[in-house]
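Sequence only, no structure available. Ideas?
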Amino acid sequence: MRKGDEESFLVVVDFEGDRGTVFDAIGKNSAPHLKTGQFVDMVPHSDDFEMNSVKKHKPFYKRGLFG
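Reply:
I predicted one. Tokens follow.
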């Protein structure tokens, strides 16, 4: 997503457990891979907007797939 000079990635997260813990871990692990001015927006996969926004997209990660 682009808004002016800012560039971000929308990540819809389907998770179990504590939202803060999960989102914090994703943020910390993604930060080293972002360019200056980029950031990650995360939302839970829990309501119509998020579910509709990912309908036509395959997940880029599934738990257990990479070890």
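Residues 2-53 form one domain.
Hope that gets you unstuck.
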